[in-house]
Amino acid sequence: MSKTKFVDFRAVKAAITMEQLLQHYGVLDQFKRTGDSLNGPCPIHKGSNPTQFRVSTTKNLWNCFSDCEHGGNTLDFITKMEKCSIHAAALKAIEWFNLDPEAMAASDDKAEPAEPKASVPAAKPATKTAANEENPGDGGRPQGLPNPPLKFRLDKLERNHPYLVEQRGLTPETIVDFGIGYCAKGMMADRIAIPIHNVKGEVVAYAGRFVGEPPEGTPKYKLPPGFRKSQELFNLDRAIKEPADKPLLIVEGFFDAMKIHDHGYRKVVALMGSTLSSVQEELIRQNTTSDSQVIVMLDENEAGKAGREDIACRLSKFCFVRVHQFPRPDMEPEHLTDEEVADIVEGHQ
Ligand SMILES: [Zn+2]
Q1: DSSP string across 138-200
Q2: 65 CA to middle of ligand 1, Å?
Q3: pLDDT reported for residue 217
């Protein structure tokens, strides 16, 4: 996160272009260029009309002539896309585009620009977006640039830790397949380290799961600073190597995915939350065809129910989507048996 306390909105606005933002959201290729304007479907209300949204590449302004009936500058665009305040939008832009926080600090501020952020949490919106949803292991990180591959590996992880074997009931094969284990030292000390790979199979982060129930104020999951989970789908690199005719199972958490793997079904990915980011949606689109089948199986709680409706609606635009509902509230994929998993993926349940 940025260290800037006071943000000079004009400096941020001047430093980014609408074209960069369309690229950031992965929609630039849907736009057609005519002179200094770009025309395409509106990314804000997710319209389909290819001329409803126009961008001036020289003025860096945009306008939606359809549902939004609205226009604005680059920062306005971020506030609409992220449903956040202008202050939060500026901070996101600084992070996404690696802008120099010092240069973006308001010149008339009364504070040292390097002072740790203090005013940021107030900007957190109440509306749910993929970037802001409170999820296991997420600090509300915005979507942005790709996570770079890690240059190190955590070694000496304890594979047969009782938490994994007894409490989570994972088999030794699954523990080894996912490369997880108890970490005694370092940034993931006293946690179960879970490597997260990008779609190419490169390790981009370790998530650290607290062993057991964490005390008040300690997060269940810890992710390294700067890591953007919205850029990755856990286990996607391996799920895509499974046969194309098998459905892709989408679950929420690391352990859901590992349990499903334990049950013998390997074409499974975890959102690391209950919402689907636009980058995750794009990752699924790139790795499916119009014949592909996707099963959305989130936790049977309020967040899961809300998430699966949205996800099903978005994915059904390019593949077949089935939503799995559990018969009882508070049920999670972790509670399933081998037979139940098999029935679900074969469409008998
Ligand atoms: Zn619109």
Answers
A1: ---PPP-SPPPPPS----S-BTT-HIIIIIS---HHHHHHHT-EEE-SGGGTTEEEEEEE-TT
A2: 7
A3: 84
Percent of the chain at pLDDT > 90 equals 54
Mark out the alpha helices in 179-277 (DSSP H runs): 236-239, 254-262
Cα separation, 199 vs 280, in Å, equals: 11
Strand, helix or coil for residue 37: strand
Residue 134 CA to ligand 1 centre (angstroms): 27
Give distance in angstroms: CA of 54 to centre of ligand 1. 10
Distance (Å) from CA 45 to ligand 1 centroid = 4
When the pLDDT of each residue in the chain is averaged and rounded to a whole number, the result is 84
Give the separation between CA 49 and CA 262, rounded to whole angstroms: 45
302: tokens are: 């309020």
Residue 108 scores a pLDDT above 70: no
pLDDT for the residue numbered 347: 79
**String of b and e for 130-159 (b: at least 16 CB within 10 Å)?**
bbbbebbbbeebbbbeebeebeeebeebbe
Structure token pair of residue 348: 């008998």
CA of 116 to the centre of ligand 1 (A): 36
Return the pLDDT at 207.
Answer: 95
Tell me how far the alpha carbon of residue 57 lies from the centroid of ligand 1, in angstroms: 18
**In sequence order, what are the beta bridge partners of 209?**
192, 221
Give buried/exposed letters for 244-272 (b at 16+ CB in 10 A, else e).
eeebbbbbbbbbbbbbbbbbebbbbbbbb
Residue 58 has which token pair? Answer: 């020289």
Ligand 1 centroid to residue 69 C-alpha, Å: 7
Task: Compute, in angstroms, the gap from residue 252 CA to the centroid of ligand 1.
Answer: 30
- For residue 68, report the distance from its CA to the centre of ligand 1, in Å: 4
35-39, 160-164, 345-349: segment of lowest average pLDDT:
345-349
CA dist 250 and 253 (Å) reads 9
44 alpha carbon – ligand 1 mean position (Å)? 5
Residue 140 corresponds to which tokens in the numbers above?
A: 């509300």
CB atoms within 10 A of CB 23: 13
CA of 311 to the centre of ligand 1 (A): 20
